[in-house]
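haha ok so turns out i had the wrong file open the whole time. this is the CORRECT one, sorry everyone. sequence first:
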Amino acid sequence: MKPTALRKKIHQQIDKLPEQVLEEIYSITSQYVEPTWREIIDRHLAEETDPKELAMWREESAFLELHEELKVKYMGQHVAMKDGKIVDHDSDVASLYKRVRQKFEGEFVLIDRVQEDPVPIIKVRSPRIIQ
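then structure:
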């Protein structure tokens, strides 16, 4: 089974779990599980989960998981992901955005640039006071 298919099944099962079970899973796995999973479970427990926000987490997880494959095919381009799959790509993000918005109106589609690092490190310099 492909990782994205497995992840989709896991999310479907999480959606069906009662609150008590989610709390137990969270308490057992909180020290071992990736932060995105903890955040998804937290949102279920808080009953704040917006379907679009959950879709965002799913696509972001898929992007990170597939990053090595994406680098080979789409390095330097912007990709659009829906349901864990690439639905479109372009070097011009504005053109990609227009096509995706037209095709998937009202649905969440992740658009991100494929770079060397999946989550680029941003350095912010701040002044220091020397006494």
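Strands lie at 78-82, 85-90, 110-113.
again sry for the mixup
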